[in-house]
Amino acid sequence: MTIRDIPSNVTFSVLTTTLQGVAAQTELDSSSVDMNDYDRVVFMTLFGVITAGSVVAVKLQHSTDDNVTDSYGTSNDVTGSSVAVADTQSNKIAYIELIRPQKRYVRVAITRTTQNAVIGGILALRYHKMGSLPVTQPTASVVATSKIVKYPA
Questions:
Q1: What are the strands of the beta sheet with 11-16, ordered from one edge?
Q2: Are 127 and 41 in contact (CB under 8 A)?
Q3: What is the 3-state secondary structure (H, E, C) of 62-111?
Q4: First to last CA, the chain
Q5: At 20, is the secondary structure helix, strand, or coil?
Q6: Alpha-carbon distance 117 to 75, whole Å?
Q7: What number of H helices and E strands is found in the chain?
Q8: What H or E segment, with its residue span, contains residue 149?
Q9: Interval 88-106: pLDDT, tens
Q10: Residues in Cβ contact with 129 at an 8 Å cutoff, skipping those fewer than 6 apart
């Protein structure tokens, strides 16, 4: 039997929270996701208020060992992943989908300059898992009482 519901096929991760993404003009790097056994991931950056004149860019960075010896930084930017976010895009989502990552660990790096830009959070949805399903959701990211509701019951 094929399992088609999203929570059985997609692993949810909260990488950055509102407290970590308060209004600022600084770089913000998310925690990373381990892509071992996954073929795809979608990163969603949730924006709050972006002050007029702010210059914001979202990109992906990757590492073979999660910054142990293969450090994150511009030398490990994922080619073609940068998204410019205009100062008129308050309260919207920017997403980047990565298919077949070249390195095991991936994170989001956001630059915010000139004026404040609020980051409401960064989410990662890993999918196309190789191996057994359903996936196990990380307890650090998903409320234990989350549910799937089917009609008719």
A1: 11-16, 117-129, 38-50, 93-99
A2: yes
A3: EECCCCCCCCCCHHHECCCCCEEECCCCCCCEEEEEEECCCCCEEEEEEE
A4: 19
A5: helix
A6: 25
A7: 1, 9
A8: none
A9: 999 999 999 999 999 999 9
A10: 9, 11, 37, 38, 39, 135
Kindly state the tokens that stand for 137: 């959701």
Tell if the pTM clears 0.70, that is, is over it: yes
Which helix (H) or strand (E) segment is 6 a member of? helix 6-9
149: which 2 tokens?
A: 């509701």
**Which residues have C-beta within 8 Å of that of residue 32, sequence separation ≥ 6?**
15, 63, 66, 67, 72, 105, 106, 107
Query: Tokens standing for 4?
Result: 């088609």
What's the Rg (C-alpha) of the chain? 17
Look at residue 22 and tell me whether its pLDDT is greater than 70. Answer: yes
- Is the pLDDT at 1 greater than 60? The verdict is no
Please list, residue by residue across 71-81, b when 16 or more beta carbons sit within 10 angstroms of its beta carbon and e when fewer do.
ebeeebebeeb
